[in-house]
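In the design runs reported in the main text, the only information available to the sequence generator was the tokenized backbone. The following block is the verbatim input for one such run; it is reproduced so that readers can re-run the procedure and compare outputs position by position.
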């Protein structure tokens, strides 16, 4: 005798039953009514009864409604098992979720090696880099839509922890044939005659505008946005513009030999932060991730 076990992990098909009708509490049917029928509650408040099994002699088979319920069980029960396993890992401090927003576009390249090492060391952590909260990370962190944010800007809030990772200077990248190539420093006025290449974000988040041009009351001759770092530096190397970027990023570029790097006359240094919820700071896997970022 084999039968479908609703509500249990195993879902197998009915075949034949040996018991007599008396084996089912005196019922003339092989299956009691609560199992034979299904009564869902609908949003309208009405109730419909659906027959799940049909009996032909001593043989039982699933009705279309029964087959639909079986398919539902086959989809849902494995997910419940996975969730149960994840709960156990969380209780042991080994499982969890790390969804990260990156507000610093070039920092995504720096993050990738640390993420690869983290996923190897913590295989039971669900890892993702979430792009839709790139510039709205504060509410996303507080609403548990993401778990961390890599950003050069602090997010003042009492429920958040700011972990300093490293500081870095900004520099002006120009081509080797550029008029400024022989200089070691630059000022905002030097940019007023240039085609300025930046990432495609609002000006309020671009340091070249907020810390250099706007305080001096200046504008670049032209402003062009480029979404890819290597393409941007390739344009700089070929004389199509200049770019103010993190010095470490320029040093790692494939175009480094074709660039000259100038630094602001008044040094401009930024700090990279990993921002997380304070309540998560005790989790071993998060401390492991911070250690990889700092290493």
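Verbatim output:
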């Amino acid at each position: 005798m084999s039968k479908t076990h609703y509500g249990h992990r195993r879902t197998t098909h009915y075949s034949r039953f040996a018991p007599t009708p008396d084996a089912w509490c005196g019922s003339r049917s092989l299956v009691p009514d609560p199992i034979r029928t299904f009564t869902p509650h609908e949003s309208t408040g009405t109730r419909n009864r659906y027959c799940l099994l049909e009996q032909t002699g001593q043989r039982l088979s699933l009705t279309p409604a029964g087959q639909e319920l079986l398919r539902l069980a086959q989809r849902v029960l494995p997910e419940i098992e996975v969730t149960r396993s994840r709960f156990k890992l969380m209780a042991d401090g080994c499982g969890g979720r790390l969804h990260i927003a990156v507000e610093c576009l070039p920092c995504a390249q720096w993050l990738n090696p640390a993420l690869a090492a983290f996923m190897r060391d913590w295989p039971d952590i669900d890892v993702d880099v979430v792009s839709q909260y790139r510039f709205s990370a504060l509410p996303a962190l507080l609403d548990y839509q993401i778990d961390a944010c890599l950003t050069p800007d602090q997010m003042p809030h009492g429920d958040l922890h700011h972990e300093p990772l490293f500081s870095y200077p900004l520099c002006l990248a120009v081509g080797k044939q550029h008029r400024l190539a022989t200089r070691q420093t630059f000022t905002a006025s030097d940019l007023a005659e240039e085609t300025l290449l930046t990432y495609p974000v609002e000006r309020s988040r671009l340091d070249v505008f907020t810390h250099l041009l706007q305080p001096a009351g200046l504008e670049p001759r032209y402003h062009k946005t480029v979404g890819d770092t290597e393409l941007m530096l390739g344009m700089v190397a070929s004389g199509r513009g200049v770019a103010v970027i993190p010095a470490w990023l320029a040093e790692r570029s494939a175009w480094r030999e074709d660039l000259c790097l100038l630094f602001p006359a008044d040094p401009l240094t930024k700090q990279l932060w990993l921002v997380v919820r304070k309540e998560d700071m005790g989790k071993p896997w998060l401390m492991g991730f911070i250690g990889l970022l700092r290493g």
